[in-house]
Each structure stands twice: as structure tokens, then as C-alpha cells.
Amino acid sequence: MKNHRFITLCTTLVALAAAAVVFTPVTRADDKADAAAARKAKREKELEKYDANRDGKLEADEKAVEKADKDKARAEKKEAAAEKKKKKEADKHDDN
């Protein structure tokens, strides 16, 4: 009887391991496809925003505008983080 339970347990574990091996690549492929679709959608949105002559590609001047916008957004994000940190430190000192 114990031998039968052991065999059933081993069979179940092997089946679960096989399922994990089979379904993991499918999940990863789906994740990669989703990521690729997200990148493509982001790129199309950027083209729509920055492609002034609507030729489907960014020229040097259009790339410069895109870079300036990204640099500005990065600087604003950095400034907001610094202000948040400063406020947090001020609140910490006020609590003492």
C-alpha cells in the first residue's frame, strides 16, 4: 500500500514538472510578444508626436526635438524626486 502511494506521488510530481517545462516557454513567448507589441505601440506614438513631415521616420531635427522633450521630462522627474526627498527630510526633522 505504501509503495502504491509513493508511485502515485512520484507520478504526480513528474506530471507537474512536465507541465512546468511545457508551459514556461509559452508564457515567456507571450511575455516577449507583449513587450514587442508595447515597444511598437510606443514607437508609433512617438512617430505620431515627433514626425513633423509624416514620412514614417524621424529626421535629425525631429530627433532633436524628441531628445529635448525627453531631457526636459528627465530633469523634471529628477527635480520632483529631489523636492520629495527634501520634504521627507524636513518632515522627519519636524517630528523630532
Indicate the topology.
Layout lengths: L1 H49 L9 H36 L1
What is the number of strand segments? 0
Kindly state the mean pLDDT as a whole number?
Answer: 87
Judged by helices, strands and strand pairing, the structural class is mainly alpha
Strand content: under 5%
Helical run tally: 2
Structural summary, described in words:
The protein is built from two helices and no strands. Helix content is 89%, strand content 0%. The longest helix has 49 residues, at 2-50. It starts with a helix and ends with a helix. By secondary structure, the protein is an all-alpha fold.
In short:
The protein has helices spanning 2-50, 60-95. With 96 residues, it is mainly α.
